Amino acid sequence: MEITVDTLISLAGLFIGGGGGAFFTWRYMRRKAKAEAQTEEVNMAQAVQDTYQQMLKDREEEVAYKNGIIKELRERQEKMESTVFDLKREVARNGRMVEAMRPFLCYDTKCKKRVRVPQSEYEEPEKPAKLDVEPLNSDAL
What we know:
69% of the residues lie in helices and 0% in strands. It is mainly alpha-helical.
């Protein structure tokens, strides 16, 4: 069997045009598919990372909002504690005033000598009314 130039050209044309071209096409397509798969993987990884970053940002905003609420509540609590302290001090002061006045209290509600006692340091005490009747002397009894 003799191989001639015509046979070689025919075989080369068949290889390049038929089977050989398919081999090169298949190889090119395989590289292209692999590159597209890698590109898709990178895009998916980027999408996952973007989602994760958005979740972190949302979480940071939520924490900042809750920290602001906590700070505001602590400030309110401090104000309330200060107010409670002031009220306790005022109650203690009023208790001391009542104890200081206790010896001078008159329990007879019909007594004509009753005088209104000022409730604050800014009120003027009421002057007792002049009585037509002499008060009883406790030594005479």
